[in-house]
Amino acid sequence: MSDAVSRPQTMAEKILSRRGDRAVYAGDLAVVEVDQVMVVDSIAQSFIERMQRDLAAVPKFPERVSIVIDHVAPASTVSVAQAQKEAREYAAQTGVQLFDVGRGICHQVLMEEGLARPGWIVLGSDSHSTTYGAVAAFGTGMGATDIALAAASGKTWLKVPESVKVSFTGDLRDGVTAKDVALEMIRVLGADGATYQSIEMHAGDRFTRGERMTLANLCVEAGAKAGLVVPGGEILTGYGYDVPDWVYPDDGATYVQSVEIDLSALNPRMSAPNEVDNVYDVAELRDQLRDTPIDQVFIGTCTNGRIEDLHAAAAVLRGQKVAPGTRLLVIPASSEVMEQAMADGTLLTLQRAGAVLGTPGCGPCMGRHQGVLAPGEVCVSTSNRNFIGRMGDKDARIYLASPAVAAATAVKGRVALPEDVITPTITT
Ligand SMILES: CC(C)[C@H](C(=O)O)[C@@H](O)C(=O)O
Ligand code: SF4
Fold first, then answer.
1. What is the per-residue pLDDT across 316-357, written as a single tens digit (0 to 9) for each?
2. ipTM greater than 0.95, yes or no?
3. Which of 109, 126, 384 to mutate to test the pocket of ligand 1 (most atoms within 8 A of CB)?
4. What's the predicted TM-score (pTM) here?
5. What phi and psi, each to the nearest 5 degrees, are found at residue 107?
6. Is 249:230 a contact under the CB 8 Å cutoff?
7. Those residues with Cβ within 8 angstroms of residue 225's Cβ, 6 or more apart along the chain or in another chain
8. In angstroms, what is the span from residue 140 Cα to ligand 2's centroid?
9. Which ligand is nearest to the CA of 384?
10. What sign for the dihedral angle of Cα 317, 321, 326, 329?
């Protein structure tokens, strides 16, 4: 055991050891305490059924369980409304926390509420729960049964994942964003290139919390179990987090693969249908798609619906108009983001440019409501998935990009770069 304890560990191994009762390494089975269990509306009914019917249990620590009504909010059909009503009643009965219609997308809300913190284990009934890795929390998605077991017992078990080390070097050029980095990372790793692995991202002090969320969010698109960003920058200084010393990976920890991404060499990137790792330079697709009108542009989601994303879009859209024939939907990731964007005039800028604003939540991201696509339609979206049928009809096509590229595309009605819209100011 003492020998085992002294072996260098990755971040995933560190967190799973700390929240369990022994030192664990990739391949071991770990039984760990769970700091937060998050349930989304779409899964709430099966979660409640597992708790009540299968386990005959109540949440062991109600304050460690949250239900978020975000995926289809406000409700679109009677059956959705009924499921949400049951979720509300369940929260009232058991004392678990409820974040109702309009509060926002689960991952954004948990982060804003301080329900994901460095060194924690956060389980969500949603695959993009890797997002919590932005603040060095081991976040991962699980199905209703595992989520219910964790809520009932306060614990979970899992196989400790192997880790992939991704090191970022250099600095981003102007106009290149964390979304471009995330898309490039998924291209390099491949859509199933990190299956059941933890992607450990070494970024130094680069990237804000929101940008780190974008990076960790996309990790599941390489199949990852978790996406952990080594704490630095704003995480140490900006949000009052207590970042424990033990959370950092050890020198000499074991990685299955090490990848280096030179940020200074990156251009704005875009993922073409129908796989997230199908990534090209925007400039290349702009040329290829010169004659393809874009029907819908969607700015929002847990990937890119934060205030900095709306600012980036507004910077391009200020004084411009959305192209005739193109719809621009903007859905802030949370009520907090919406309030900030209201207070600083961002929403007015977007609205004046012709954007349609929606209730904070997932919006049309997974094709359930608020902007689904018709057969043959083409959409540029700031979300994280472009699979066949993801946003509506199976013959619609989805391109994934950063908010600035999405905004430029809305103005041009064709795939475009911000510089196609904004003329650089010449200073003397
Ligand atoms: C509804 C939910 C379970 C789903 C997920 O797991 O990710 C959704 O959020 C998505 O993005 O496809
Ligand atoms: S915004 Fe999209 S990706 Fe994120 S949780 Fe909602 S449906 Fe899933």
1. 999 999 999 999 999 999 999 999 999 999 999 999 999 999
2. yes
3. 126
4. 0.97
5. -65, -40
6. yes
7. 12, 130, 140, 158, 161, 196, 197, 198
8. 14
9. 2
10. positive
